[in-house]
Amino acid sequence: MTTKDAGQDYGVRAGYRRITKQVESLRPPPNLSDYEAICRHFRWDAARALLDGLPGGAGLNIAHEAIDRHADGPRGDEVALRWLGRRGQRRSFTWAGLRDATNRVANALGALGVRPGERVFALLGRIPELHLAVLGALKAKCVVCPLFSAFGPEPILTRLTLGDARVLVTTEALYRRKVEGLRDSLPNLAHVILIGEDETGTAVKGTEDWHALVGAADPHYAIPPTDPEDPALLHFTSGTTGRPKGALHVHEAVVMHTLTGRYALDLHADDIFWCTADAGWVTGTSYGIIAPLANGVTTLVVEAEFDAETWYGVLERERVTVWYTAPTAIRMMMRLGSEALKGRNLSALRFMASVGEPLNPEAVVWSNETFGRPFHDNWWQTETGGIMIANFAAMDVKPGSMGRPVPGVEAAIVTREAGRLKVVREPGVSGELALKAGWPSMMRAYINEEERYRKCFADGWYLTGDLAMRDEEGYFWFVGRADDVIKSSGHLIGPFEVESALMEHPAVAEAGVIGKPDPTAGEIVKAFVSLKAGHVWSEELRRDLLGHARKRLGPAVAPREIDALPTLPRTRSGKIMRRLLKARELGLPEGDLSTLEDDAR
Ligand code: ATP
Ligand code: MG
């Protein structure tokens, strides 16, 4: 099949009106007001100039950019981080407070004999000590790996072993439940630092107490010279398509975090920014910790899990101005309907963004109607370390599109023919999404998987494993993961498009689509849906849905089979696991389930 044919196969995208922006009326004026002009004149050394660098030209360290340069300036006493605990507790840290606390952490690690380059893992929920541990360890030039606190012992053991953990920072409760029994299998784990319920501390055999250790440490610390290429962060991928990979990032990544915070999230100095992601995933670190602080913006950390009432309350009371969340939460809000927002005053909220999965056009339209502004989808991966493609504040939104490349990022659609990479110049053609290698937050390795890492690159391009297409205005459209694309009777079908069409039906809350082997068609399209409250699965509803999909997508692309499930299997970061839907449908082995959400087991 030629690339042209492949392109024509996807693309039933009619029917959604673009959401136009009145740029002149946007307040404050967007940081990226003239996309073309900024792209044309963009230079990475100018982006680096947004940062300070270590005093005396001693290099670039993420923690200095995120904390010390603000702490030592006129804004040192302003609030940098505000935490809302699960039980209504509140804690605030000024920039100066964060500086002193992270200095103590860096000194405490030094006192334990922990050396630069050694790996410090954090198994913590969304509590401020996570920020302190991560940024303190970065000051000490350790490599930090945050883990999702809902992981069970097995995925924790695998990651601590693969990542060669030397230090683990966790809470007493998590330690007792998940780690204590693993200690014999972790001979290289020299130190476990426990955060107790309160400051009275803990005394668990074989561990150290955070409050005692950090409390006794000196609040002064000079970050050692740091090469921008020194490793800083280790992040495991979500495991959506298989066994998670450990992507290694360097201190220079902070250039990308800062730039994208400014351009893609439109952060301004007086913003209150809330990123809902858990730090176990790269979003929770790049944008939950680093990007807002590096941009000098107050960041809100909310411990509570998703619950529409709680979240809307947070947005209202805390006067959140910029909100970064994920499609899975947006779909849950849609499921509840706009009723839950009645009487809320969200007038402070001016920019909303989403990442992690394709954002269905229906969700963009819904948010525009419900919040008076759309969610701005953006695309990136653990491997890219920061946002690569985004819907920017000043740019029209085409519902269903991921937007345009961040200035400095060169994105293209490529195909591989006879082992050669071909860059597809004409618009409207689908292929693999590729990025010109060399942006600052690009992963520098998959740990212990040299060969796999090498295979991600060809002819100077990084190959993302996602399929997309670019339209004539330069907007990119997600088609599907290369692994998930369905080949049916000679057509290539992207699951996202089918799922989005199903979600337009009033009964459907979410949809996951797979290819099911078929002797005549090769594969047929099979859909799984979960229903909105008040709808019951029936033969009639199935027929209605099949009819809706056929009308919307045409018979070649519409699902042949539809089943309902109470919920769809998801990763802990909220991504629908199509490979698991497929394995279960076909009775095949379920593969790596370490990142699967509990209620889908
Ligand atoms: P694994 O690589 O282990 O299978 P994963 O790819 O889900 O897991 P992440 O790095 O957390 O791990 O997720 C990145 C992927 O998520 C992207 O490659 C893409 O498939 C999907 N994704 C992220 N944002 C978007 C978006 N805005 N639209 C469509 N897909 C997105
Ligand atoms: Mg991936």
What distinguishing features does this structure have?
15-stranded mixed beta sheet, Rossmann fold, globular, disordered N terminus, five-stranded parallel beta sheet, GMP Synthetase, Chain A, domain 3, 28 strands, 3 domains, alpha/beta, 601 residues, binds adenosine-5'-triphosphate, binds magnesium ion
Write the layout of secondary structure elements.
Elements lengths: L2 H7 L25 H7 L2 H5 L13 H10 L7 E6 L5 E5 H17 L7 E5 L4 H12 L3 E5 L5 H10 L2 E7 H8 L11 E5 L12 E2 H6 L15 E6 L9 E5 L2 H11 L8 E4 L6 H13 L3 E5 L5 H10 L4 E4 L1 H10 L14 E4 L6 H11 L3 E5 L9 E2 L10 E5 L5 E7 L2 E5 L5 E7 L8 E2 L3 H5 L2 E2 L2 E10 L5 E6 L4 E3 L2 E3 L1 H9 L4 E11 L3 E10 L7 H15 L7 E4 L13 H9 L15
Parallel strand pairs: 1-11, 3-4, 3-5, 5-6, 6-7, 10-11, 10-12, 12-13, 13-14, 27-28
Antiparallel strand pairs: 1-2, 8-9, 9-20, 14-15, 15-16, 16-23, 17-18, 17-19, 19-22, 21-22, 22-23, 24-25, 26-27
The protein binds adenosine-5'-triphosphate and magnesium ion.
Brief overview:
With about 600 residues, the chain is of the alpha/beta class. It contains 18 helices and 28 strands.
Please give a structural write-up.
- The chain has 601 residues and is of the alpha/beta class.
- It has three domains: 3-45 and 252-481, 3-Layer(aba) Sandwich (Rossmann fold), CATH 3.40.50.12780; 92-245, Rossmann fold; 486-586, 2-Layer Sandwich (GMP Synthetase, Chain A, domain 3).
- The chain is 29% helix and 24% strand.
- It has 18 helices and 28 strands.
- The strands form five sheets. It has a 15-stranded mixed β-sheet that branches.
- Helix 4 packs across helix 5 and helix 4 (62-71) packs parallel to helix 11 (282-294).
- The longest helix has 17 residues, at 95-111.
- The chain is globular, with a radius of gyration of 24 Å.
- The model is unreliable at 1-12 (pLDDT under 50).
- Bound molecules: adenosine-5'-triphosphate and magnesium ion (MG).
- Magnesium ion (MG) binds next to loops.
